Amino acid sequence: MSTATAQALANLSVAAELTASATAVLSDPQLSPGHAACFGMLIEALGAEQARAQIHMAHAVRRSGAHKLDQPSLQAVAQAGAEPTESNFAAAEGHTTAGRTAFHSARSFMQDWLDIPRNIAHDRLVQADCLIGGVDDSGQPIDPWLTELATDFADPALDPRLVAATALKLHSTRKDLPDGAAGAEQKQQLQSDAHQLIHSDPKSARKHIANMVAQVKAGKRPLKALLDEVGLFRRGTRRGLIEYILRVLPSQAAVIEAHFAGTGNPATQAGDRQGLQEAEAEITGEKGEGWDDDSTKPDWAREEDDLPPIPEPAQDSASNPDTDPDTDPDSAADPDADPDTDPPEMESDVEAASTRGESTPAWEDLKPERRRLIGLMALLLKDHRASDHRAGQPPGSNHAGLATAQVSVILDYEKMLQGAPNYAVSSSGLMLSPGEARTAMCNAGIYPVILNGKSLPLDLGRTQRLFTKAQGRTIRAAYQGCAYPGCAMPVERCELDHLDPWERGGCTDIHSAALCCPVHHVERHCGLFHAVKIPGCRPMVLLSPDLDPKQELRVNTYFMTPEQALASDALAQEMTAKWRAGTLTVEIVEP
């Protein structure tokens, strides 16, 4: 056995050398695009396998008692690392001591000897508990905490990083689950739902699982406890800036996020460049530079008769699921962190531009955080000016020329009739209680959209080419974001897409309309994927065979709640089965 493990360790050393050697060759600037794609495919597969190995390593270190190795054994291990030969690995088998050890636990060994950050070492051991198993005080193995996900973790066809991240999320709910059989049942339900999401919708699984965990953690807390913690807290001064922490209810967050979305769009009143420039001038004391005008608006913000198109601006972090704090709440800044600890060095947009000898960045090139701050300050300044000049102002006048946010509240008609507590969700995906929903609908700028009930006739047939505002609001409220599976582009950045081309006699009807971001709108018309029309059902997507060899009908569930995502995935699987069985007539829309 020791010979086999020594050979395996030698193989790992060779694999590391081969990876470094291959990376050096493949970093050639003249690398062909096909080989670059192969490079990406193989490196990601290698990264996934490495992630699986790292958790197995943590389990092996703890199970074997590696932190109890005596000093000569540690020296032999270090020698094998410096000269990775099979004989040196065989000599590094090592011995543990029953006396005083250099490391008091597996975690301290990983942290102090392997130089793994403390939080990462802790997470890997937790993931090992959940997916491989633990070890009791007597050294006996313990079954994994999440048996269903343990099977997924061992499946080579699944990305172990997604399974490991899911295990960590579910493990964080252990103190929020009730005791006894009820807690075990709830844990099993969470695990089963997570398993289904990983298999059916891996691109959006992280977001939905994070939402499920958030619901568990918030489920026990009464409203009074939440209200005791909401507020705007001053954190202190760091690097010449004043920091605040804002904690709000979901219904309040929906209004804030809707305003942020409008601020980022120069075609909306909330994103009006002139008003925001005036607001920044009042904040900074000098006129801002590099602001957009009609000649620099992106394509999606321009009228058809505007100037020729210019290159699209880069997507901000709100459209990237890997950087959005909503996708992984644990990646957000810790509110309880030490206020005296400075963040990593980062140069501001203006400083970076001046260093490179460039002009101040245009509005679309600013960081989204700065755009949002300017929009929020514009609202505060508007209220301040309105109080100073209230005399002579008409009711509801907008002195700064900026608009308040508009939020769509989506109501599940059947759940509403049943009095279900979770029948309402905002257009940004935040669950609202019945009281919050009723309060929201009493405020200006809230548009209740009841789905599954009888609606007003909104189809226009051939009477006009473009969708009306009412149609657009309905489609955006129903679909919530881009139709492409896993795309995180919100409705404010999406375009209405005719599935029945107008130039071929198509109608401007909501049942034949889809919602696509500018990138995927072009890709659909280029034939990289197809929209699929199904009678009595929302349009679905059929990816190209290279992306989906199984050729299954899919729906983007990124903006849905976990319950909606599971139901939509089940519906897509049902439609796929009927389509293949020949019992369902579908229309695959041509580009």
Number of contiguous helices: 20
In total, how many domains does the architecture comprise?
Answer: 4
Q: How many runs of DSSP E, i.e. beta strands?
A: 14
Helix proportion: 40-55%
As a percent range, the share of strand residues is 5-15%
Strand order of the largest sheet: 7-6-5-8
Give the overall average pLDDT. 76
Principal-axes shape call: globular
Structural class: alpha+beta
Rg:
28 Å
Largest sheet features: 4 strands, mixed
Q: Are there runs of 5+ residues with pLDDT below 50, and where?
A: 303-360, 389-403, 442-448, 450-459
Report the end-to-end length measured between terminal Cα atoms: 59 Å
Q: How would you characterize this protein structure?
A:
- InterPro entries: HNH_nuc.
- This is HNH endonuclease signature motif containing protein.
- Residues 176-195, 264-367 are annotated as: Disordered.
- The protein is of the alpha+beta class and 591 residues long.
- It has helices spanning 2-26, 33-64, 71-82, 86-91, 106-112, 118-131, 147-154, 160-171, 180-200, 202-219, 223-229, 250-263, 273-284, 349-355, 368-388, 413-418, 434-441, 469-479, 518-525, 562-581; strands at 134-135, 141-142, 231-238, 241-247, 407-412, 424-426, 431-432, 446-451, 495-498, 513-516, 529-533, 540-543, 553-554, 587-588.
- Residues 303-360, 389-403, 442-448 and 450-459 have low confidence and may be disordered.
